Amino acid sequence: MIAQPDFPPRLTPQEYLDWEAQQDYRYEYIDGEIIAMTGGTIPHNDLALNFYRALYPHLRQRGCRANVSDVKVEDSKNERYFYPDLVVTCDAEDLQAQTSVKHPTVIVEVLSPSTATGDRSTKLKCYRQIPTVQEYVLVDSQSMTVELYRRGDEGRMWGYAQYEAGERFRLESLDFELELSVLYEGVNLNQ
Questions:
Q1: Which residue among 78, 136, 165, 183 is the one 20 to 30 A from 189 at the CA level?
Q2: For residue 62, how far is the Cα from the chain centroid?
C-alpha cells in the first residue's frame, strides 16, 4: 500500500504549486482541492498513445504540439491545474513553455470506471471555462466509443456528438480526422 501524502484539505494556488513541486506523484488542483492522479490501465495508456501517434505528423505541419499525461494545463483565470491524458496547443507562448500549457486548443481524457463521472461533469465544466479550448474529447477505455464536445461559433454554446465502431470523428479546430479503428488499434478492450 502506498502511503497517502499529508496535505491540508484546501490550499491556495501558490501553496499547491509549491507543495506539488516537492511530491513524487502528480496532483490536480480544482477550486482549492487537491486530487491525486491515479495510475491507468494498459488500454488507457494505449489509447492516449495511439491518439498522440495519429496526431503528431499532422500537428508538426501546423506548428502545433501535443503532450501526454505528464504535462500540466494551467487555467490561470480560475486558478486550476490539470493533467489531461492529451493536450494540444498551437499557441506560440505554449510552444516555448517549460512547465505548463496555458492556452490549450484540444483536451483529451481517456475514460476509466473511476474517472468517467468526473471527466463528464467537473472536468467538462472546468475545461469549457478555458477560453482557448475548442474541443474536448472523451475516449472510452472499455468500449469503442468517443464523445466530442465542440465550442460553438459564439463561444458559449457547446455541441456534442458520439462516435462508435466503424465511424470517424473530426477535430475541426485542427482540421484533423481520425477513424476509431486507428485510435483503438491494438487496444485490448476485454477487461
A1: 136
A2: 20
